[in-house]
Amino acid sequence: MMQLWRAAYVIARRDFTAVVLSRTFILFLLGPLLPILIGFAFGGLGDKISSTDLRPIVGVAMSAADSAALQRSHDRLAERMGDQTLPRLRIVPATPAPRIQLARPDSEVVAILSGSLARPVLTGKVEDLDKLQGDISLLSTAALAERTLTFVTVDRQEVTTSLGAQAQARLLIGRVAQVVMFFLTILLAGMILSNLVEEKTNKIIEILAAAVPIDAIFLGKLMAMLAMSFVGIAFWGGTAFAIFLALHGGGGPLPAPAVGWPLFLLLAVLYFAMAYTLLGSLFLGIGAQAATVREVQTLNMPITMAQMLIFFFASYAVDHMGSPAEVAACIFPFSSPFAMIARAAQDGAVWPHLVALIWQAAFVALIIRVGVLLFRRHVMQSGGRWWKRLFRPATG
Amino acid sequence: MIGDITASSPASIPAYAVEGHGLVKTFGSFRAVDGIDIAVPAGAIYGVLGPNGAGKTTLLRTLLGIIDPDEGHRTLLGEDQPLRMAAQVGYLPEERGLYPSMKAFEAIAFMGALRGLPLKIGRERAKAMLDRHGMGASIEKPIRQLSKGMAQTVQLFGTIVHEPRLIVLDEPFSGLDAINQEKLEALIREQARNGVTILFSTHVIAHAERLCERIAIVAGGRIRFEGTPGDARDRLRSQVRLRTRASDGTWRRALPADTMAEEGTWHFALPDEGIEPLLRALIDGQAGIESLSIERPGLHDAFVAIAGEAAARQMGEDRQEEQP
Predict the structure, then answer these.
(1) Structure confidence at residue B10 (pLDDT)
(2) Distance CA B87, CA B82 (A)
(3) Closest Cα of chain B to A23: distance in Å?
(4) Is B12 in a helix, a strand, or coil?
(5) Which residue of B has its CA nearest to A220?
(6) Which of A2, A19, A204, A208 is the best mutation test for B, with the most CBs of B within 10 A?
(7) Distance in Å, alpha carbon of A15 to nearest chain B alpha carbon
(8) Is A209 exposed, middle or buried (CB count within 10 Å of its CB: 0-12, 13-18, 19+)?
């Protein structure tokens, strides 16, 4: 077994240095940061948009006393309900009639309130009336009761823990972890598809196959790509963390996942490695059958779609902890890492993770073995019925 | 599931470095190797001769464990699972392959590392080999910047950098110029002097004739002859080439029945009773001998006879294709 790992290490080291020391790796590292920068640019724009007051403006064409009472009640209610909840008010002339004022090209109000506080009349389009009618009724009622309206005081009882809020936070952590893991996997594992093409087109596979078991070639390639992924994740994660600290200066304490942050992060790394190697070994096996880069590219689309399905399955399971669907997502090898990381966020039990990791690792080995045997059968044109050799030692 | 590969002790030296018995390998309905028995003595330079498509490469790949035979069994340095002996075997495939971005010395060291040689030692040896071979300036160059011949040399060094006990070369002279062919022949002889077993395939008979202690002639997936080049040549009788002034006379009755005439020259196999009775008849019949030579057949002639005219013709075509 040591010889197999040694051979895999030799191949992994070659692949890793070939990729990491190439100029294109810098682009690979910087690539995912572009969307972040674009996100910042658009985020700033979004802030500007959100700071623009988009509340509807209602014209008030009432007597001066009514208009003033209405404005005062607006201000008192806004103090308690928040500035953005009520429509803005603007005094408009009583004449011409609201209908005519609203038809003017320079009209800035969406509806006009006329009549009196006791019998207000709101003029506007049906959909605007539907939206504003309740607010205007509230404002008018408050204005009428201006003198007698008093707000009751609410006593506050503060607690440090709310299980409902905690459950919500953990659900959110699980979801975020799933999404991050999924995007990293889809971003990185797809590259493995074309991983053996270089060896096949450059005829290097013959030299490798004569020297080491093909299992070691597959394993080495997976190890190299996984290591390369970790370099990328460390770089992206470090950058994201630095940006987070710069913007929020540490902020308040984050809600903790059920297993605690240290174990959760460790499990996230392990489950990412498992998700990556599970999909990677499958991709490697499929990609190894392809003769050309074009064939590999053609395979990309259906494989990405399959990945999406797996992700949807796992993300459905997050909301249904303990349901048959969630248990199935935890057992099905390809969705298991995604389902289990969500479980780690919501459930404190540790032993299911040990079982899941062993289960997933066994499947990685099985997929590699099947991929190797199919590779020997179809590409190297060697060996007979591949399933008969599934559990034989990989000694060539 | 994923099992063990363990290098065997170099102390055990079998009589035959490579053995194959009843080897059969088919691709679809085509029997590329059709029941081959082969035994390569340890320490020998052994050539597998045959035209392209004869099954040489498939035979070597089967013996090395790159592909498994459909029938039969093989041993490599006494081990029936060839990859177990990978650390003691060097293999140069017919289709050369190197990572284009790798530096020359790194490529050699990598090939050694695949077979268990520590990278540090591999790098040192690689630099020394390249330097000794006059390629010192190319040590740090990536493979893609090397000429085809230089890249082939790099691959050859990668084949021997870990000092194997058995070197298997598939068409090693293919693509090399005359100078590099000469260097490769010298290298093969040097390795053999050090006790290394060399098994190589070729369709250029001259190399086999110069180098090999034993040969196997392969055609149609079968071994048609196995033995020394001398044995192969001995299968044919020596050829007599006679030129006479007279074109006809009673002396002609003394020529063997299968004699062929070509512009005043007679060709025929040396008669079993020797040349003397024929000479006497020629002199008595006043044939007017201008020249008479007895030529021992070359390996090429033996190949023609053994593998068949068609195979020989195929080889001729292959050689023509290769010549620049």
Answers:
(1) 47
(2) 10
(3) 12
(4) coil
(5) B114
(6) A204
(7) 10
(8) buried
Residues 6+ apart with CB under 8 A from A299: A193, A286, A287, A290
Q: What is the ipTM of this complex?
A: 0.79
Q: Using CB atoms within 10 Å of the CB of residue B289, give its burial: 0 to 12 exposed, 13 to 18 middle, 19+ buried.
A: middle
Contact A381 B83 (CB under 8 A): no
Report the alpha-carbon distance of residue A229 to residue A184 in Å, rounded. Answer: 8
Nearest C-alpha neighbor of B156 from the set B200, B96, B68: B96
Q: Out of A198, A390, A395, whose CB is closest to B84?
A: A395
Give chain B's residues under pLDDT 70.
1-13, 309-324
Asked if A23 has any chain B CB less than 8 Å from its own CB, the reply is no
| Minimum-distance CB partner of A209 among B5, B27, B66 | B66
Q: pTM of this prediction?
A: 0.74
Rounded Cα gap, residues A136 and A271, in angstroms: 55
Residues 6+ apart with CB under 8 A from A83: none
Taking the Cβ of residue B99 and every Cβ of chain A, the question of whether any pair is shorter than 8 Å is answered with: yes
Task: Tell me the pLDDT tens digit for each residue of A22-81.
Answer: 888 888 888 777 776 777 667 666 566 556 667 889 999 999 999 999 999 999 898 888
| Residue-level pLDDT at B196 | 96
Q: Which residue has the tokens 């370099």?
A: A231
What does the angle CA A230 – CA A234 – CA A236 come to, to the nearest 5 degrees? 115
According to the model, what pLDDT value does residue B102 have? 93
What's the whole-number mean pLDDT along residues A12-17? 93
Residue B118's contacts (CB-CB under 8 Å, 6 or more residues apart) are none
Chain B partners of A393 at a C-beta cutoff of 8 Å?
A: 2-5
User: DSSP 3-state assignment of B237?
Assistant: coil
Of the two residues B37 and A189, the one the predictor is more confident about is: B37
Is A47's Cβ below 8 Å from some Cβ in B? no
Summarize pLDDT for B89-136 with one digit per residue, the tens.
999 998 888 999 999 999 999 999 999 999 999 999 999 999 998 999
pLDDT in tens, A212-243: 999 999 999 999 989 998 998 888 888 888 88
A266 with A350: CB under 8 angstroms? no
b/e code A282-309 from CB counts within 10 Å (16+ = b): bbbbbbbbbeeeeebeebeeebeeebee
Neighboring chain A residues of B81 at a CB cutoff of 8 Å: 395-396
Evaluate if residue A205 carries a pLDDT over 70. Answer: yes
| A206·B2 Cβ contact <8 A | no
Residue A88: what are its φ and ψ, rounded to 5°? -80, 150
| DSSP designation for A25 | H
The CA distance from A165 to the nearest CA of chain B, in Å, is 47
Least Cα separation, residue B130 to chain A (angstroms): 20
Q: Which residue has the tokens 């389009």?
A: A125
Region A293-317 average pLDDT: 80
Could you tell me if B157 lies within 8 Å of chain A, comparing CB atoms? no
Inter-chain CB pairs, A–B, below 8 Å: 117
Q: What distance in Å separates residue B279's CA from the closest CA in chain A?
A: 58
